[in-house]
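QA checklist item 7 of 12: single-chain prediction sanity check.
[x] sequence parsed
[x] length recorded as 490
[x] structure emitted
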Amino acid sequence: MASMLKRLSITGIMLSMFLCGPVIGEDAEPVELRLKGIPTVFTSDPTLIARRKIFEAFLKRYPQYKVQVITPLVVDAPGSEGTDFFAVIGGVAPDVFWLLTRHVADYRDQGFLLPLNEHLAQYQNEHREPYRGISTPTKIWKFCQDKGTVYAVPTAYYGMLLACHNPTFGKYNYGGKVPNDWDEIYEFARAMTYDPTKEPDGKSDDPYVYGLFLNMGNRGGSPGWYLLQWIWSAGGEVVLPHFEKDGKLVEVPDPPVDFRSFGITVSDEKAYLATLAANKKRLEGLGLSTSYGVSDAKWRLVTDSEKSLRALYFYRKILQQPWIRNKGHEFDITPEMIRAKKAVDPITKEEFDLNDKRVQKRIYYGVVDSNLSSEIKQKFIAMQIITMQEGGMGSINADPTEWTYAPLPSYRNEQPAVFVMGNFAGINAAIEPEDKPGRRDRKAIEEAAWKYIEFMTGPQAEAIKMKVYVELGLAEMVRPNLLKEAGYND
């Protein structure tokens, strides 16, 4: 292990460059702040363009901080997300961690995140108002705390959307339409799926068209990730907290947390406070504690519920359902047809012998390109599930008219429910003083790290982001309240 760490600290040596503003006073020693993930000035991603401008504004606002931008070791393997752990062990970690939702609890439990309660209290004293950050709802903030301690703050949040390819929708007479429920997702996807080898009049140079794209490949594949979305939009749940009472497990609400006690304002405060009061009343009625953390509850998988199972059946349908196209329309091959070895077109009443190899060649299975095949084909995608935050297209060169973005439909008559996730920032708890300029005072380094987080999530940063997005023609990708707060009332 020692030799491995030595190799990591040598072969993974950071590429460093120093970006600093003017030093304040002759005797003042600038604090060296180690950061990663600073976007290059050459990026074409609108979100990264905004982040770069915010970073430059931070340097001007705090010239007493000398920033060392580090590039940690990159591991091209399943353990690639653990590189910060190696960096902490090797003593070369950044002072600020940028985390995905799934990382926060792991970093917290490993002791890598510094509690932020004191910094939040300091913020409230300095600004005479609670910390708002990027104006985030409770569903995102709840990942940041446990048992009365806040370990991270949100830096962005986003949800899943259905992206509909306008040229393909137009070609198949679905122009201007979007699916409204699961039945229509399948209907639209089936109608737009085209494999020339399965069509009687197909031509070898015809492009393939897949109704829906779900990335399930070995690299970057997320079959379980998509399943969560289907479960929630089916009206189901994945896991629920329980407490033991009288020898039985009793379902309880998520841990009730009053974010006001931390000096935090959540964007959905009015609705959340009503939910908080109702949850506390429910717990009191059960004779259970109204104050507990995530680790205090017994969490149980509940994907075997009737609603959750809808998701599994639908997943199987879009991936594996056999069907045939006949004379300009499509029909599914039902289990009864399979048992009878005969498929019947419900519209023309034609019969197809499922033992006939010519018929077998015409059978499609599912409507999804799951990115599992290495075969290179010319292909188009009609719909895909994406995540998008403000600034959305990923490139200033992308054509904003190519896709229409719509809410992900739910199971019929169920309320819309979208998989929401976020990005977070936390302070490295393993910062140690060093015998070198700018790194001698741990408290000063921690304070600089907090000031960086505070600035990157503050009102000046939000104003910079809005200006970038508006100038790039991306205002429609931004939450209206953020535009209004930045002075864009139109």
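[x] summary fact logged: The chain has 16 helices and 20 strands.
[ ] second reviewer sign-off
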